[in-house]
Amino acid sequence: MKPTAPEPVLPSRDDPVIRTGSEVVGGPAGRRISFGRGTAWWNATRVLILLAVVTFALGLVQKKPCYDGGWFGHGSQYSKACYSDMPHLFAGRGLDKGHVPYFDETGDPGMKYLEYPVITGGVMYFAGTLANAFGGGENGDLHDRQLWFVMINALIMMACAVVVVVAVARTSGRRPWDAAMVAAAPVLALNGIINWDLVAVAITAVAMMAWARRNIVLAGVLFGLATAAKLYPVLLLGPLFLLCLRAGRLKDFWKAGGAAVGAWLVVNLPVMIFAWDGWKLFYTFSQERGADFGSLWLILQQRYEPMDIDTLNTWVSALLLLMAAGIAALALCAPRRPRFAQLAYLIIAAFLFTNKVYSPQYVLWLLPLVVLARPRWRDVLIWQACEVIYFLGVWLYIESYSGGPHAKGLSQNAYHVAILIHLIGLLFIAALVVRDILWPDHDPVRADGSDDPSGGVLDDAPDVFTVGRGRDLYYGPDYDDEFGPGGAQDLPGKIYK
After folding, report:
1. Is the residue at 184 inside a domain?
2. Is the whole-model pTM more than 0.70?
3. Alpha-helical segments (H) within 64-141
4. Is residue 37 part of a domain?
């Protein structure tokens, strides 16, 4: 007889914010609620998909002032907070003329080739080809074709947002409704079509789902493809290595890592071989750019002595390595092995904290990781409030010096405050995640006895390698009285649930 699947965790019972809010509609879900499959068409997945589509559509409505001319000099795309890179890069990177990314020059003297990884470049070229076809060809009205380009990309990004939500729901184990924090996220609405980041976020989310389902090679392939769309997903292999080392599952890591390298090479090698100068620009541009919007380094550059690019790169690299070393120590020394999503959030947050630029859409990298690492509505909403403040701050700051002599916006000092609020939001979630790792009884995911739903082969695996006092300990609210208050069950080779 097939075992019965465990009941899903319901937010109205589990989350304090949702539990309080549910009183408006009659209180938390009762004991007699049915969890049977097929009992209703509106299951969790379909509800989450609808919620994601509605949220994304509201974001498209918020961009309306730019459809009416803000992108084309007939109004401010900054004071209305509707800016997007998409229409500008359509013309600025030669896509309006049918230029092939990496192989053809853009025609822009400031950026000779397209400065994006190859999968993102492929999506841009595909959307550009359709926009030119629907907009009357290369001789058609440019503004019409720009709008077509944005709308086609918006549909692609909406599909990516749906993929992210479904993947998070299926990575969460017994907590599929946690994905509602992704589906209803204000940052998803505000940042969804600023750039093409949702492509990489979607592939990364599916890679994490594949790992959670123990499809090791597929997960590796997807991590490699995600890295070919945006660089940050490669950083997730670091936490996987540490966790597999601690659990004695390095063979599984090498399978995933090898598949990731292979997939990355398959999509990159043809461009590397036949269009080397265009391909390498993404990597050299990242090294050569200075301190830019949203970064801690911009505050330091604008308030103190500017650093030359080599000195800046050295400081950025040193701080990132220091933070990565701290995360590695936490992974190997924590009393109980951290969850994959927890370390994934910490390493990406460290990368963004130390990076030379923080574009508003980078928040989308973190969105699924925050929800998987710290699934509490209060904490996610506090973090998103910080990001919304930064979102508004950066556009108003740009408006202050680019909107003409009568433009109103944020001063430099006020913009620095907005940057600091964003950085505090990053550190706020990071502090909660570190606390959950060191004292797992605070972890919402492990409160019901689960180990690591996103861990795949790591879920419930015993430790074979630790540093210091790290052992298979469970500090939780439901251990036997014989251990006493604050005690721990210490039985090597078994993780207590």
Report:
1. yes
2. yes
3. 64-67, 85-92, 118-134
4. no
The three-state secondary structure class of 345 is helix
Nearest to 110 by CA among 89, 131, 133: 89
Residues of the chain with pLDDT under 50: 1-5, 30, 38, 470-497
State how far the alpha carbon of 165 is from the alpha carbons of 76, 168, 200, 230, 338, in Å: 32, 5, 14, 19, 23
Non-local (6+) Cβ contacts of 81 within 8 A are 62, 190, 391, 392, 395, 396
| Per-residue pLDDT, 249 | 95
Q: What is the DSSP letter of 230?
A: -
Contacts of 99 by beta carbon, 8 Å cutoff, 6+ apart = 93, 105, 106, 107
Residue entry with tokens 């076809």: 133
- Count other C-beta atoms under 10 Å from residue 33's C-beta: 11
- Cβ pair 412, 302 in contact under 8 A: yes
DSSP three-state, residue 146: helix
Structural domain for 321, as ranges: 53-490
3-state SS assignment for residue 6: coil
How far is it, in rounded angstroms, from Cα 368 to Cα 226? 15
Q: Which residues pair with 490 in a beta bridge?
A: 473
Residue 20's Cα: distance from chain center in Å?
28
CA pair distance 457, 447, nearest whole angstrom: 20
Cβ(59)–Cβ(188) below 8 Å: yes
Strand partners, 111: 108
Q: Do residues 181 and 429 lie in contact, with contact meaning Cβ atoms separated by under 8 Å? A: no
Among all chains, which residue has been given the structure tokens 């690299």? 317
Residue 402, in any domain of the structure? yes
Q: What is the DSSP letter of 177?
A: G
Domain count, the chain: 1
Alpha-carbon distance 89 to 97, whole Å?
12
Task: Tell me which DSSP letter residue 405 carries.
Answer: T
240 is written with which tokens?
């996987």
Q: Which residues pair with 489 in a beta bridge?
A: 474
